[in-house]
Amino acid sequence: xxxxxxxxxxxxxxxxxxxxxxxxxxxxxxxxxxxxxxxxxxxxxxxxxxxxxxxxxxxxxxxxxxxxxxxxxxxxxxxxxxxxxxxxxxxxxxxxxxxxxxxxxxxxxxxxxxxxxx
Amino acid sequence: xxxxxxxxxxxxxxxxxxxxxxxxxxxxxxxxxxxxxxxxxxxxxxxxxxxxxxxxxxxxxxxxxxxxxxxxxxxxxxxxxxxxxxxxxxxxxxxxxxxxxxxxxxxxxxxxxxxxxxxxxxxxxxxxxxxxxxxxxxxxxxxxxxxxxxxxxxxxxxxxxxxxxxxxxxxxxxxxxxxxxxxxxxxxxxxxxxxxxxxxxxxxxxxxxxxxxxxxxxxxxxxxxxxxxxxxxxxxx
Lengths: 118, 237
Known about the structure:
A: 84% helix, B: 237 residues, extended
């Protein structure tokens, strides 16, 4: 379980060292993309805990979701409809669901672990 | 060693972290102040400006402290004398006294002579006068009087039914004089020769001519000054 956290730290470090600034016009797309990435990441962790993890689904889902979200936001800007709200809503709901499942799984594991000990 | 699943998760987490930092930096950057891009020369200029200001403020402080010391001196006679001095000084500053000195006289005349029949000149507007006063102040004018009306800090210049009122008194139609006191009359005159106001007055078919005068007397402001937004401060006893 430590490897993903180390990966996250590594990414943060790289980002800090790279010192790249995104122009303000594109920061909207980036924020949507970050949300999508989070959703996929937590989805992956959930699948891992439930032993349903599939590399291909995970990696393709990651990139596909990011591009879909950014594309939706772009389309929304072109059409004058706030389509990115759809992405935020969908990803937000899924994020909560996934985190809830992760929490339950961890609690279940912890309590069964304690049950075995006693 | 590590399962490929974990490595995959770690790789994606790494990308997420990277994006997160980018997003964070971008939002933070937009909140930051704009960068200071002054070069050495500008910095030096600003520094000298700040130094001048410091010395000016210090001088002012010294004067005020001297005044305070005089107030606090025990002799009542001295106190009253100091107060009188300060009062007359303040009156002078507020424009309630006649002032004299070197300066310039600006004549406002129609651009085309009145005897010529043709396009009539436009009457002078309050806005033109206000801009002229702003410009004079910017060029270092000390005291200004428009057609015998002293301009002080609260002087209103208004358009009322096509007439110009300065200090709530109507000023005559062109031609009239604007008298300006300045530390350096010659310099002010030269600056008025190339001023924007000259062009703006010309567009209104009016001619501005200035001449430096060695000795000029400006009338006092003769109306009561209404103090609306100030209250006496409670001083320490």
